[in-house]
Amino acid sequence: MTSPEAPPEPSPRHWARTLRLLWTVSPAHMLGVVVTTVLTALLPAAAVQLTTQAVQNVADAVAGDDTAGRAALGAGILLATVSLAGHLCSTAQGYLEALLQYRMANGINTRIMEKAVRLRLEHFEDSATYDSLQLANREAAYRPYQLFTQLIAVLSSAVTLVSVAAVLLSWDPWVALAVLCAPIPAVGAGMFYSRITWRVENERAADRRRTTYLQYLVTNDRTYKETRLFGLGGFFLDRYRDLLGRFYGVDRSVARRQSTANALLGLVSVAATSGAVLFAITSTIDSGDIGRLAGYMAAVTVVQGSAQALFSGFGELYEHNLFLGNLFSFLDIPERGVTEGTRPFPARLTRGIEFRDVSFTYPGSADPVLDGFDLTLPAGRCVALVGQNGAGKTTIVKLLSRLYEPDGGTILIDGHPVQEYDLDDLRANIGVIFQDFVQYEESARANIGYAKVDALDDEDGIRRAAAQADATGFLDRLPQGLDTQLGRWFEGGRQLSGGQWQKVALARAFLRDAPVVVLDEPTAAIDAAAEAEIFEKLREISGQATTLLIAHRFSTVRVADHIVVMEQGRVLEQGTHVQLMERDGTYAELFRLQAAGYLDEPVPEAT
Asked: Residue 480's domain is classified under what CATH number?
């Protein structure tokens, strides 16, 4: 993903969207935070007035005024009451903010997952999506809530500033103005460096993802064997350190320049506050008003702190808006609509599946994977696809299941275009195992049952699917049977072999008892004896289901009723195993080549 030349101006709509999210997540907590913040912000003005009265009354009492002592004591009691009220309001505010933060983080992370569920496969085959997701995840945990708390802090500072500045303005408007404006230069510098930080983080999004990937490579059981045997651990660690070192070098440079600017520009605020205090002291020497001096100095301190917090708050709001743009950029990724109808998927196909003059090119590529592709899968028959890698075999599966849409041509199921079928119903009626099937770090039951999540408790169905995939034997030997945790990521997990994982994935495909079964290299990790048993069961299934089989192993392919040889997105030849061998074309050549490898014999030349 390419970073823009300069960050965009922060948009108030980010504030509005964040506040709407907060309101949706927990309106009661949000209102509670606002109320306690306003109450807490009003108390310093009362404290300044009471301090002035208390000090003046003490001075009068020392001078001999009998009533002033009691007044000073009353002012002191009120000051203690204000302090207690501030403590209680702050405690309540902190409690409500904590609850709101938890709810907000959960809500944002849920929305990111909801968005990911709605995105199409083409998004996840584009690195820009991963850059956007990485940036969004960095902001999700805290940035929206920080925007709200900063808004609350600005509100609090503004209320305190207005209430206390009114007292200071009544004493000396020019001093009040100087103290109010002193923090502005430092805030301007902070906004400037916020823009730099935003640009740096966006430009390193891909490298941030790479550090996460390097962590995965050295901390995962699935990569452990290869990375250790090839001695890659230290190599990956060096790359990881190099990336973090580059990040630190840039961050240190930005931090150094920002700290220098803050130190220099902060002198303006120090000078303004010091000048105001000196002015108050000289004025008191002339007037002798000790109480006013105490109140004046307290007011200057409060106004200076509130003004600093207010203007700094605006600077931080600017920064939050910049980074919230990353979160909302992911949430706003356009979702290309999928045309779908209402036609229910048939319980069993009667006419089969037909690809008619289908063409398809992957996004970002100039070379078509399929070009004028024609294929018929008769109902209730097993059709095998063979061909070199890149011939377009797996692409056919993606198009059939509508993970992608063809650029041209038509895909028909029982004579109707796939777009006429309800999308969820279509996908629910395709039992599929992909070559890169998922190994869920869940129970064995879940690993099979995820094919039909509403049937996770269907003991008979899960066991029947396991038997069809020849998985019953090793599953029954697990400590808790189907309820055994698989994998090593969670406590008590048992790791399976590659072939066992593939049988579990096959069982997942069989569980659906779907009218269409798609098997992409279904036995690549399974031994020959187990493969023969599985395909004996597959023949029984194929009597009812329409099956598409993709394989490189010709012992697998021979089980099919019809074999299609693909090359560069087109059908090169097709027929039964016997017909293709008699034709003595590409299929026969590949078959003899593979057979010779098993028999350790020279490859016979074509006749």
From this structure: 3.40.50.300
CB atoms inside a 10 Å sphere around CB 577 = 19
CA-to-CA distance for 93 and 32, rounded, in angstroms? 7
Residue 427 phi/psi, 5° resolution? -70, -30
Total-model pTM:
0.68
Max avg pLDDT among 50-54, 135-139, 181-185:
135-139
d(CA 394, CA 362): 12
Asked if 581 contacts 587 with a C-beta cutoff of 8 angstroms, the reply is yes
Q: What are phi and psi of 361, to 5 degrees?
A: -130, 130
User: In which element (H, E) is residue 275 found?
Assistant: helix 232-287
pLDDT mean over 431-440? 84
Task: Of 435, 441, 416, 409, give the one whose Cα is nearest residue 341.
Answer: 416
Here the tokens at position 606 are 């074509």
Q: Give me the residue label for tokens 């279904």.
A: 522
Domain that holds residue 467: 439-513
Confirm if 365 and 351 have CB atoms less than 8 A apart. Answer: no
Q: 298, 331, 364 — which closes off a domain? A: 331
Assess contact for 394 and 379: CB atoms under 8 A: no
Decide if pLDDT at 5 tops 50: no
3-state secondary structure of 491: coil
Given its phi and psi angles, is residue 345 left (phi above 0), alpha (psi -120 to 50 degrees) or beta?
beta
Strand-pair category, 408-413 with 546-550: unpaired
Q: Lowest mean pLDDT: which of 112-126, 322-336, 522-536?
A: 522-536
Token couple for 512? 């659906």
- Among residues 306, 331, 356, which one ends one of the domains? 331
Radius of gyration of the chain (CA): 36
8 A C-beta contact, residue 409 and residue 607: no
3-state secondary structure of 371: strand
3-state secondary structure of 562: strand
Nearest to 439 by CA among 517, 525, 556: 525
